[in-house]
Amino acid sequence: MGVLKKELTSLNKDTLEEDNMGDVNDEASQSELESESEEGEDVMLTEPSKNSIYNSNGLLEKLGDISWPENVEWIHKLSIDISQEQEVDVNDDLARELAFYTQALEGTRQAFEKLQSLGLPFLRPSDYYAEMVKTDTHMVKVKGRLLAEKKNIEEAEERRKAREAKKISKEVQAQKLKERAKQKKEEIESVKKWRKQRQQSGFTGGDKGDEMSLPFEDGKGFERSNKRRPGVAPGDRSGGKARQGGGKGKKGTENKRKSRDYKDSKFGFGGRKGQRKQNTADTTNDLRGISKSSFSGNKKRKR
Amino acid sequence: MAKKRKHIETQPSVPLKKDESSTQRPKRTLLGWKDKVEEKEKDSPIFKNREKVLVTCSRRIKYRYRHLMLNLVSLLPHCKKDNKVESKESKGATLNELVELKNCSSCLFFECRKQKDLYLWMAKSPNGPSVKFLVNAVHTMEELKLTGNNLKGSRPILTFSTNFDKDPHWKLLKEIITQIFGIPKDHRKAKPYHDHVFVFSIVDDHIWFRNYQISVPHNETDKVDRGGLDKMTLVEVGPRFCLNPIKIFGGSFGGPTLYENPLYISPNQIRALEKRKKAGKYAKKIKAKTRRKMHEQSNPLEPDEFADMWKE
Which residue ranges have biased composition labelled Basic and acidic residues (chain A) (predicted)? Predict the structure, then answer.
């Protein structure tokens, strides 16, 4: 072994300085080398400044020793060489993984072409069931995780859409309210104009050839519908929407309020007329309806 | 059953036997398959890959690395898993004996030091070269982000980046890897179809390993439709690791050092350097204080003209 080493050292053409270690034991050589390298370095190494062994002839010899014969068919080796076009930065994870992926893809394409030309079956048929490297239970977990991720993404999407839709609907609502207000204003304005016009033309009735056909002269005035809606008082001009916010919390007092509301809506504010006082200034002194000898009335009433 | 079917189908595709060369292929001996080739053989119809790998680890190995080892065992059907090896005394001799005992031709030895660093030895037995790697960036197959799956025992397609042909030491590594990770064609436990691919590429003087499952839409087993190759997708199966070659030895677990990686710094050294960086903090602070004091003494300030302004 020692003789061989000497031969190799003499033949070494490498540019790096070669360190002649006489020992065979790898542990001793390793420790010695480390101590040598430590005195060679003071700082973290970034360039190969150490004295390190590079025995290319020995390497090639060993390569010749172990390699299979030259003309072994490719099918035994199944190895493909793919060239890396550009230098990949190690720290950029995405680029690195992409480089590996493209290498694998290219490799499989070439391999499949070769296999196809050899005529061997290499694609798995759909009914071929055999033991896989990962168990079925594990694959179920994987599937569960994938589904959960998908669901999370979809939920996030939906939430975002709902938020945007709410924004939009708020805008649309604002628009609608504006429209309504504008409409109302316009109608009032048109009434005013009509009045002015009529005033100007001296209240002559039945104007023929009246240019302005005003929208409310159709012959049909504003008619309140005779329908009585239970939650709405008869004198209510808001269309029944004024009391809408109060329908949430119905407790004890609210129930009483509810019957009050109901009565209000039927009889207007104040209740049934029959339960009320009915005298006016004129009828207080009207004693028509009272018989003289009737003591069945109220005793407290003064006669 | 599947194996039988494959056998029948591949019979006609084996190339015709040419004249065998004068030197007969060396016979298989108990110590494994000796492949000292004296002269070139024209054709090797009786070439049989009888590679067998022994996979062991040292004691006090961490769970993550143990899982990695088990993953590799499941990926390589031509391997034999053995018990843990005591790593104190000369592990070289014990491992060599073990390999010979188990009738294997190569060995993958996972050595875990300080429960933090994993070293991987790849060795060819009995007198082949051996390599020691430092393993980084380990992701096992059990991680749920690696969603692919492949047949247990199917032969992988090995892809290497062309950097492997640039230097002799990379060439040697490529050969070792091809022999260890390539499953023998007619192995008992090998499944017939090729549905996964190994990627070995050299980036930043490290060897990166990836394992992808091939999914291509196909109807028949022995050819792909014309557009099929373009629709091929790869899903990662795992495991993933990154190898940093430390040394290459001429013998198995020993022998003369043929190559040493100049850029390699052992993890112990890295940790020591980090600690030393932090260690000087207090001393530096004291030094800085004394320096400041000296500086102030040697360059005294002019008396402040407003110093007496607020004095009573």
Answer: 155-170, 176-192, 207-225, 251-266
Q: Is residue A160 part of a domain?
A: yes
From the list B147, B168, B178, the residue facing A79 with the nearest CB is B178
Quote ipTM for the complex: 0.74
Question: Does some domain include residue A257?
Answer: no
CATH class of B53-264: alpha beta
For residue B288, give the 3-state DSSP assignment: helix
Q: Select from B95, B94, B100, B55 the least CA-distant residue to B78.
A: B55
Count of A–B CB contacts within 8 Å?
262
pTM, entire model = 0.62
Task: Reply yes or no: is the peptide bond before residue B126 cis, omega within 30 of 0.
Answer: yes
What distance in Å separates the CA atoms of residue B120 and residue B57, rounded to the nearest whole number? 9
pLDDT digits (tens, 9 = 90+) for B255-301: 888 888 888 888 999 999 999 888 888 888 999 999 999 999 998 88
Judged by a CB distance cut-off of 8 A, whether residue B194 touches chain A is yes
Q: How far apart are CA B182 and CA B165, in angstroms?
A: 18
Over range A96-117, report the average pLDDT.
87
Of the candidate ranges A113-127, A145-159, B275-289, the one whose mean pLDDT is the lowest: A113-127
Of B54, B36, B48, residue with least CA distance to B104: B54
Each residue's pLDDT tens digit, B83-134? 888 766 666 788 888 888 888 899 999 988 888 889 999 998 878 889 999 9
Which residues of chain B make contact with A72, given a CB cutoff of 8 A? 44, 47
What are the distances in angstroms from CA A170 to CA A159, A174, A184, A244?
16, 6, 21, 19
B residues 38..57 contacting A (CB < 8 A): 40-44, 47, 49
Distance in Å, alpha carbon of B160 to nearest chain A alpha carbon? 5
Structural domains in chain A (count): 2
Structural domain boundaries in chain B: 53-264, 269-296
- Cβ–Cβ gap B151/A79 under 8 Å: no
List A residues 14-33 in contact with B (Cβ-Cβ < 8 A): 16, 21, 24-27, 29-30, 33
Whether residue A87 is contained in a domain is answered as yes
Domain that holds residue A120: 72-124
